[in-house]
Design brief:
heterodimer, A: 121 residues, seven-stranded mixed beta sheet, four-stranded antiparallel beta sheet, B: 111 residues, mainly beta, six-stranded mixed beta sheet
Chain lengths: 121, 111
């Protein structure tokens, strides 16, 4: 069974940092791109970032470019999102998602349950 | 910036058919594949359509989708509506800089 499990969410002060992780199982992890999508409370989905199967190509939304860094460890079937200089606008549930193909800009076919990030003083 | 616009809400009776539209702000919705995701309150999204009109395994054939180049829009059609179809539906594609774009979402109510 394909599973994605996010962790690392929590409460952080404005300007602070947080690192999210996504543990994958049930599929050939290195053969697929992975992505992060977030959802602010009561609002719609927002695409955040994606990374190719090998990790050599990364993609970011303009709203997080320069502050967030996506990475993956194919030996441990994990993906991470390092989030720096956080602001209240980053408060959201962050979903990890498997991409249908090897490269990032493709359909998301499996989603994790999400982890909540709250940026507040 | 490229945007996708969806109706805020739609409603229909059980057993009926409903169509949700997703209109591109500029360029062409047909330039990249369009996906559709379903999200029930408090749950993670699930994929109901990928690559314009493909259904993942497990998604019933009551779900179908299409692209209309003349109106620069994509559409999701759900026939034989069932109560479990309720929730939010999001269209999604990528722009020419490879950034993902979601529509604002459409709340489907099955009356």
């Amino acid at each position: 069974e394909v599973q994605l499990l996010e962790s690392g969410g929590g409460l952080v002060q404005p300007g602070g940092s947080l690192r999210l992780s996504c543990a994958a199982s049930g599929f050939m992890f290195s053969s697929y791109a992975m992505s992060w999508v977030r959802q602010p409370p009561g609002k719609g989905l927002e695409w955040v970032s994606a990374i190719s199967g090998t990790g050599t190509r990364t993609y970011y939304a303009d709203s997080v470019k320069g502050r967030f860094t996506i990475s993956r460890d194919n030996s441990n079937n994990t993906m991470s999102l390092q989030m720096d200089r956080l602001s209240a606008d980053d408060t959201a549930v962050y979903f990890c998602a498997k991409v249908l193909r090897f490269l990032g800009p493709n359909a998301l076919d499996i989603w994790g349950q999400g982890t909540m990030v709250t940026v507040s003083s | 910036n490229f945007m996708l616009t969806q109706p805020h809400s739609v409603s229909e009776s059980p057993g009926k058919t409903v169509t949700i539209s997703c209109t591109g702000s500029s360029g062409s919705v047909a330039s990249n594949f369009v996906q559709w995701y379903h999200q029930r309150p408090g749950s993670a999204p699930t994929t109901v359509i990928y690559e314009d009109n493909q259904r993942p395994s497990g998604v019933p054939d009551r779900f179908s989708a299409s692209i209309d180049r003349s109106s620069n829009s994509a559409s999701l059609t759900i026939s034989g509506l069932q109560p479990e179809d309720e929730g939010d539906y999001y269209c999604q594609t990528y722009d020419n800089t490879n950034q993902g774009i979601f529509g604002g979402g459409t709340r489907l109510t099955v009356l």
